[in-house]
Amino acid sequence: MKLQVRERIIDFSDHTMVMGIININDDSFSGDGTLDQNKAMEMALAKVDEGADIIDIGAESARTNRAPISEEEEINRLKPFIKEFHSTNWGERRPKPLLSVNTWRPEVASKVLPLGVDILNDIGALGKSDNARICADYGTALLIMHSIGLPKEPHLGQKYGNVIDDINLFFEKKINLAASVGLNVEQILLDPGIDFAKDRAENLNILKNLKEFHNHGRPILVPVSRKTVIGEVLSINDPSSRDAGTVACSVSSIIRGAAILRVHNVKAASQTVKIIQELMK
After folding, report:
1. Which listed residue (227, 256, 274, 281) is catalytic?
2. pTM
3. Quick one: which of 72, 97, 114, 266 could link to 50 by a disulfide (CB 3.0–4.6 Å)?
4. What fold characterizes domain 2-219?
């Protein structure tokens, strides 16, 4: 399976990629965010040393118990990092990773994508076609995440007839929507949205049936790192103590064909990928 990213073609046929999370905020649920731009870049360099193929930066926490920041503030947090990212001398020791930006606001995407962004990580469930159109304009790949309603709003008690069927129908509609405004289908990734408008049973069902999403012919990203579902199963309240559970979910996801793992602990994920791929040869 392949993904078109600006002028590159990424082949996932024999490699699960690792996406390292950088939170340029001070209220991340995992407690690893920072507003210090220099520290954020140091964290990114360290994650690439540990094996990150992609760096995913976000300026606003997705926590629904935190107030949203303004579009201007989000842009002001993202721009310096993106500029520093591209001016960094990556060298041979650190192959330059892909850069993903986590935002759902078209107004923000339109300001930062021209600076050189490989993937737009849209946690807004592509409510409208704007982000797809902006990605088409700049050759940026679009990650479409399943959810219900707008980010920063709690969506508790959502009922699904069949969560797998409902997500597949959602993906079909959103792929068609993105294509209708000129985005090449080869530029689309899919994310089933673990913990977004879903309960424990639904999240586990998604992870167990990840192969059911391959019928769209697009790479699947699994963002299960330190999520609530892991805490519920293991009775662990502190997200930073959920890495063992994250590794377990990562193993399951790799075996079921995940193209990308979005994680906080890149070293653990990278080592997991290497071992599982050796065993699957």
Report:
1. 227
2. 0.93
3. 266
4. TIM Barrel (3.20.20)
